Amino acid sequence: MPELKIYQSTGENSLFVEQSLQQLTPIANAEATTTVTIDENHTFQEMDGFGASFTDSSAYLINQVLDNEQKKEVMSKLFDSQDGIGLSVLRNPMGASDYARDIYSYNDMPAQVTDTKLTHFSIAHDEADIIPLLQQALEINPQIKLMASPWSAPGWMKTSGSMIAGELKQEYYQAYADYFVRYIQAFEKHGLPTYAVTPQNEPLFEPKHYPSMLMLPEAQRDFIKNYLKPSFVKHNIHTKILCYDHNWDRPDYPLTVLDYAKDEVDGVAWHWYGGNASAQSEVLKAFADKEVHFTEGSGGEWIPPFEQAFSNVMRTGIDILRNHSKSFVLWNMALDEKNGPTVPGFGKSTCRGIVTVNQETKELTYTLDYYALAHFSKFIRPKAVRIDASTNQEVIRSVAFKNTDHSIAVVLFNDSEKAENVAVKLQGKDDLSFRLASKSALSILIK
Questions:
Q1: Where is the Glycosyl hydrolase family 30 beta sandwich domain (predicted)?
Q2: Range of 441's domain?
Q3: Closest CA to 57 of 106, 104, 102, 99
Q4: How many domains does one find in the chain?
Q5: Which residue, 382, 410, 428, sits at the end of a domain?
Q6: Which residues of 117-154 are buried (b: 16+ CB within 10 A; e: fewer)?
Q7: Domain edge (last residue) among 382, 397, 412
């Protein structure tokens, strides 16, 4: 029998609990068994990893509200692969997002004043909380990859004159490309290399109550091909450029960008707030050499009961990985007891963080998203390669990876309304058989 590590989640009060094979419920012989067949010879994408975002709000809560012992604990539980869940991808908003205590860019100017030479460019805001936490995370896990996405260009570059709504003016395309260069160079000086950027978060969404910028596909393809990529080449920057960074329901957007800027774009970034994960594969089929990344999905009060919310992360996470994504990144690393802080005027927040930091009591709690991410990130390590996992019953959702140490990680989720018999079939090894409760998750590491 191979060496096994098994973690199971069966409900709100039993999340990511270590088990032995003997502790799992044995198969009920009277019922049919779903077989999950693992084929190491059929390989797919290599993983960068799993993670979330140190938004301004998240970084403030962890760095300033928690005491030193709590901060040390949460950073270890987030990023240490032994004592924690080993998160390895962090997506940074470039300037303010909806989850920031105020609205800011790295080059704010008074009304009617421009700064095309970026003389006033500064990342001083991020040096208080965000940068120290990123540095700590990298110390704990040097394999972490940093991504960056703006919610808006500085207001003076836009038709609205504000970081809220509007489009990037054509005459400032070069200044905006230079803004990316300055950001990457400034973070590099802090020992923080930027692995990938997207030109704009959710470019088809233009809310009027937090930083946003409409960037149609024709504008994005022009910006990437003729300004951003040439600026990276000029400054010897090797940061990847991912296009789109929005929902699955508009695959026409990245297809439009890639048709024109194929050589300048490294991949496509996706969110889960509309459409189906199969869009990732649809675009990959048309542009087979481009990477697939999943850069944002938040849980929240719109999926209120625990079971539905936990099931959504497990089910959708497996779908994201089966549709070739190299990353699976949720949204805020931390929010408070009111699902904030948010920018002024935002209104009621319904999002959920990976952890909750209660600003009144200073209590630190780990949410269902932490434990759902753990099912993936604890065992599927950076540079793991996805291998084929097929089932004869779709109610048992599965995904499998082979790590660099040759261990096999299998993540299972029973999407049925009843318990199911499951057998995991590995080449040259005995089958692993057990009964899996309805809406429960099981992660197995086989050495």
A1: 384-441
A2: 4-45+386-446
A3: 99
A4: 2
A5: 382
A6: ebeebebebbeebbbebbebbbebbeebbbbbbbbbbb
A7: 382
Look at residues 13, 42, 6 and name the one whose alpha carbon lies nearest to residue 385: 42
Tokens of 90: 């962090």
Helices and strands, counts by H and E, the chain: 11, 22
Instruction: Render the burial of 38-53: b for 16+ CB within 10 Å, e for the rest.
Output: beeeeebbebbbbbbb
| Local structure of 178: helix, strand or coil | helix
Other Cβ atoms closer than 10 A to 182: 17
Torsion of CA 173, 176, 181, 185, to 10 degrees: 170
User: What values do phi and psi take at 188, rounded to 5?
Assistant: -60, -35
Question: Three-state DSSP class for 413?
Answer: strand
Torsion-angle region of 118 (φ positive above 0: left; ψ -120 to 50: alpha; else: beta): left
